[in-house]
Specification:
11% of the residues lie in helices and 34% in strands. It is mainly β and 228 residues long. It has a six-stranded antiparallel sheet. Strands 5, 7, 8, 11 and 15 form a five-stranded antiparallel sheet that branches. A hairpin with a 2-residue loop joins strand 7 and strand 8. 44% of the residues are buried.
């Protein structure tokens, strides 16, 4: 797997947190919507009822958001990237795509996508990710999407071992013919959105991704909202 190390965007608002460089968006960007903000390298969990819509917005551009879900009526039924890929015969997720569970039930449908590039192949970053792929951190603690998902979903009775491959919204992953994967900077721009409609009652975990190299070197916030 090759991770792009393009130049980081210049900003006067950059500061350095425990996981490395992060940046706050200028002003109070909301794109005319009432949204909840996830700070850089954080996550949340919530119930999403059948028929409700989850809108995920990239307020600054080039920021990934990891999504995972389990069925509210059975924590052993969880989002399966493998089933989703099988039934679509595609690794692309965009408007019209259906997310399936490990038991082949529809969990959510993508109803709007203004970016067009998302990943369904890679697992959420974890402490082991940084230990293995970020040798410059020398094994130091680093916030991770797995930790943020596990910590927040635990309040809904979701065990860490139930958290599998995530839908990595806005993540730009592509493969060469020989199978080698590349992680390039997200193509999302400020205000791009990704909207899911729940097809069943779900427990959802959502993050503002903690991996610098997945977000063009700088960890940024993610906005979201739930609509009936």
């Amino acid at each position: 797997m090759t991770i792009s190390q393009d130049a980081r965007p210049s900003t006067t608002d950059r500061h350095f947190g425990p996981g490395g460089p992060v940046v706050q968006p200028p002003g109070d960007y909301r794109d005319g919507m009432t949204l909840t903000r996830l700070d850089p390298q954080t996550g949340t969990a919530f119930l999403l009822r059948a028929g409700q819509r989850l809108t995920v917005v990239d307020p600054t551009g080039e920021q990934v958001s990891d999504f995972f879900a389990v069925m509210d009526d059975d924590r052993d039924e969880w989002f399966s990237s493998g089933r989703t890929i099988d039934y679509a015969n595609s690794t692309a997720v965009t408007t019209g795509s259906v997310l399936y569970s490990n038991r082949s039930r529809p969990m959510a449908t993508v109803v709007e996508d203004t970016c067009g590039h998302h990943d369904i192949l890679l697992t959420p970053c974890s402490q082991q990710t940084f230990d293995l792929l970020y040798p410059e951190f020398e094994g130091a603690y680093h916030p991770s999407c797995f930790e943020n998902l596990a910590t927040n979903m635990a309040g809904f009775g979701v065990e860490p071992d139930r958290i599998s491959t995530t839908l990595n919204i806005f993540m730009n992953v592509w493969a060469e013919r020989n199978g080698e994967l590349h992680i390039d900077p997200p193509t999302s721009r400020a205000g791009d959105r990704f909207v899911l409609r729940a097809e069943a009652d779900l427990v959802v975990g959502l993050t503002a991704c903690s991996a610098e190299k997945s977000n063009n070197g700088v960890c940024k916030p993610v906005d979201y909202r739930i609509d009936d």
